[in-house]
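User: Predict the full complex structure for these chains.
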Amino acid sequence: MSKYLSARDIDWPLLIITMLVCGVGVLQIYSATLGTAYHSSWWRQILYVAGGLFLMWLVLAFDYHSFLRYVPALYIASVAALLGTYAVGQAAFGSRRWIPLGAGLHLQVSEFVKLVIILLVARYLAELKTEALEIREMVILSALVAVPAVLVLIEPDLGTSLTYFAVLVTGAFLAGLRWKYVAAIAIVAVLVLPVGYSFLKDYQKARIVGFMDPERDPRGTGYQLIQSQIAVGSGGMFGKGVTKGTQTQLRFLPVPHKDFIFSAFAEEHGFVGVVFMLAAFFVMIMRIVQNAQTAPDPVGMYICMGVAGLLLFHVLVNVGMVAGLMPVTGIPLPFMSAGGSSVWSSFLALGLVNNVRLRRFVN
Amino acid sequence: MILPVDPNLEQQLSDKPPLRDDLRRAAGKIAVFQYTGVVIFLFLISGFWRLQVQNPQFYDERAQANSIKSVPILAPRGRILDRDGRVIVDNHSSYTLILARESLKEEHLKPIAQGLNLDYNDLVDKVRRFASRPKYEPIVLKEELSPAELAFVDSHRDFFPELVKIQAQRRLYPQNGMMAHVIGYTGEISESELDDPAFAKYDPGAVIGKFGIEREYNDVLMGVDGQRQVVVDNRGQVREVLKEKPAVPGKDLQLTIDLDLQVVAELAMEDKNGAVVALDPRTGEVLAMVSRPTFDPNKFAVHIKSKDWQEIAQNKENPLLNRAIQAQQAPGSTFKPIVALAGLETGTIDDTFTIHCPGGATFYGHYYHCHLKGGHGAVSLHKAIVQSCDVYFYNVANKLGIDKMAFYADLAGYGHVTGIDLPGEKPGVVPSTEWKLRMFRQKWYAGENISVGIGQGALTVTPLQLARAYGGIALDGQWHTPHLVKGGKDTVKEWTFDQKNWTEVIDGTCGVVNEGGTGVRAALPGVTVCGKTGTAQVASNEFTKGKSDKDLKDNAWFVGFAPRENPEIVVAAYYEHGAESKFAAPIVRDVIKAYLDKKVRLNALKQEQQRLAAMANFVPPGIEVRR
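Assistant: Here is the predicted structure of the two-chain assembly.
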C-alpha cells in the first residue's frame, strides 16, 4: 500500500475522451456564435476548461472521505446559496438562476449543488446498516434531496432539479431498493404528477405540450423543438460542414452554443459526427462505471455511479431534446455546452471519480 | 507528478466500519445500469437515424424553406407622358410598415408609437382588436413612411424586430381628378379577372391597369417583376443573395394629349358636368379629353378604401363614367350639317332650296316648334345652319326619310364606336327602319323623321363621335380614327362628295360663329372659327318622372374647328344640363384659343432660335476668324 498517489493512476483514457469532447465543444461554440455578440464564448470556454482541469486537480488533492465528513456543512451551505440565488439572483429568460460575480460572470449555484447531492447520497447509502434500502431511509434521503431540488425548481429550473433525482434514483437502485417500493413510488408519481403539473410555470407546461405536439403552435412553444429537429435532420449523413449549418448560422436554432449545441453539431457534422460524439459520451460514462466497479469501498462506488447517473441523465435529456425525443427542459450538455458553471461542476465530478480511482488500491 | 497525500488517510481508513458486501451485491445492479446506458444510447442514436438518415430530404427542404426566400423585385410601371414629353403619371417608391405580431412585445408599443408619431392608445386598441386573429396576420401600422420614420425603423431594427417594412411602387396621378378618365387607374387583379383568359398571364396579387389608358395599354406599361432568392435569418434580415432575376421595367407611354390644352379644357369644365374632346382632325390625335364630374385615381392606387369606393360608386352623378366616350346623348342641332350634307348629296335639296319659317310647322298632323318662336322668315340652307332653323330641317328630314339620314350619319361615324384606344367606348344610336324593326319589332313612322332631322328622337352620339364627325367635315370628308397614344395606327375613311356641298355646309358653320349666328361666343380675333351649336332635350317624358329641374334642363353642345382653311383642331363640348348651347361655345373657344396661342408662341420661339443661330455664324467685317 502506497502513500503516494501517482499521476499515472489518473484515468487517462477518461480524461482524453473528456478533453476530446471539450475540444469539439469549443469548435462548435466557435462555429455557432460566428458573427454574433456571443462570439467570445469560444475562448471563454477554453478558459473554463482550463479552470475545470485545475479544479479537478484540486479535488484529487484531498481524499474523498474527507469531503464526506463535510457533507452536512456542504448541504446547509448549498441550501443557503440556493436561497441566496432566489433573493439576489439575476433574472434572465424569466428565471433566477445566476448569482452575478461581476465582469460578466454569473455563478449558477444549482450546478455545483449537484456535487453535494452526489456526496450526500453516497454517504447516506454507504452508512446504511440494513440489507436493503428500507422505505423509511428512502423517504428521509428523498426529503434531503427534495429540499434543494424544490429550491431549484422554483427558480424555475425544472431540468437541473431533475438531475438531483437522477443521482438519487441511481444510488437508491444500487443500494437495493425493493421492487415493491419501486412500484409504490411509480404509483405515487403517477398520482402526484398531475398535481405537480399544475404547480409548473406556464412556460414549463407549454414546453411539455410543445413536446407532445410541436406542430400545434409552430411559432410558439413548439418552435425550439421543430427548429432543432430541422437542424438535425437537414444535417443528413455527413453534415453541412463547420460554420455551414443554415439553421445554426441563421439563428433559427435557439441558443446553439448552449442547450442546443448538440443540434448545431448534428447539423454541421451529420449522423456520422453524432455517432462519434455519442460513442465518446458512452465510453466516458462506461469508464466512470468501470471506476465504480474498482472502487475501494461502497462510498466510492456510490460517488462514481452518482456521477455516471448524472452524466447519463444529462446526455439523455439534452441529446434527446435535440432529437425531439425529450421535452425542452433546458439543461446543458456536459463538457460541450458553453458556460463556466456547467464545465466546472462537470470537471469537479470527474475529479471525484478520479479521486476514488486513485485510491482504489487502498485495500 | 506527485499528488499531495492526506497524512491522516491511514488513520481514517482504520476508523471506518467494516464493509458490508455492498460492492459484490451492487455488481449485478451496475450491470443493469450498463445495459440501461446501452439502451439509452441506442434510443438516442435511433432518434438521429430517423431524422438524419431516413428523412434528411424532408428536413433539408424545411431548412431551406426557413432560410431561402423568394422576394419579388417589383418592376416599375411605365410613366405616362404628354405629347411634348411632360410627365403626367409617375411612380414613387413608398414604404409600408407592418407589425409582425409573432415577435411583438407589449412594452415596445410605447416607443414605437413615439417614434412613428402614432397615437399610443390607438395603437394599443389596434393590437387588441387583432388579438383574436391568427398571429401571422400582420397589422399595417403606417403607409407612405416619411424619411424620418424610415430612419427610425432602420436604426431600431435590432430593438424592434416586430417592425417590418415593405416596399411598394405607387402610382402618382395628377391631382383634383385631372385626366382621371383618360388615364384611369391601377389596382390589384380581382378574382373574376383572374378567371378571364385575357389575364391568365398575371399572378394573384399583380397590380394591373383597371381603367382608361392604364388598362388599354397595360401590357406596355406593366413591366415584368424580377425575383431575388435570398438567404434570411430568423429575423428576416437578408444575409446573402443567391439568385437575382432583374425586373424589366414597363415602357413609358407618350400620349397625344397636349397638357396645355388639357388644362384649359379642365378649367373650362370646372363646376360643370359634361365632356370636352379636342382632336387634330388631320391625324385623329386626341389633344384633350375631359369628363366631369371626375374622381381622384390616387385613391385607387393598389387598394381603395371601402369608404372612398362607396363615395364614388354611389354618387348619382356617376363620376366613373367617361362622358367623352360613354355619354350617349341626342346631338341636337349639331346634327343639322349632316342632314344638310345628306340632302345636298342625295339631291333631295339644292342650294336654292328655301322655306318659310313661321316659328313652327305641322307634319303628319303634329305641330313642331322652331326654337325661335317668332320664326326665321325666308330661310335658305346657309341661313338655316347659321340660325339653326328647325323648320328648315324638318322639311329636309321629311323629304329625305330616315334611311338616307341614317346612311350619312353612319358615314359620319355615328352609331358605331370610333375605335379610340380606350376601353368601354359606347356606340350611340342611329335609328333607321331596320334598327327599329330589330330593336322593337315595329315599323318606322314617317313622323319620326322630323325630330331626327334636328338631332332628337332616338338619335344619340358621344362627344368623341361628334368631334370626329366635324373633323371629317372640316377636312372635306377625311375621317381619321381618334387615338390617344403617339404613333398609334392612323386609319382614314374618305368620302368623295361634291366639293360644292362641302363648301356650302362649312360656310354655314362659319356663319354660325362669325355672322351673328348661334355660336358667336366661340369667335376669336384673327382666326376663322367654324362650329355648330346644339341644344338637346334630355329625354322623352317617360324618363323624366321624379327628376329635379336641373336634371331636366337641356344639354348644351358646341362643336367647333379652326382655322377654316386648313383646319388643325376640332373641339366638341358637351355641357350636361347646360340649358343653352351658347354656354357650351366658350368652352370650345377657350381650347381653340389655347391651341392657337401655343402655336404662335412656338413659332416665335422658333424664329428667335433661328435668329440666334444666324447671329452665331455672323462675323463682323474686319475681324479675321482664325481656324
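The two ends of chain A are 8 Å apart (CA to CA).
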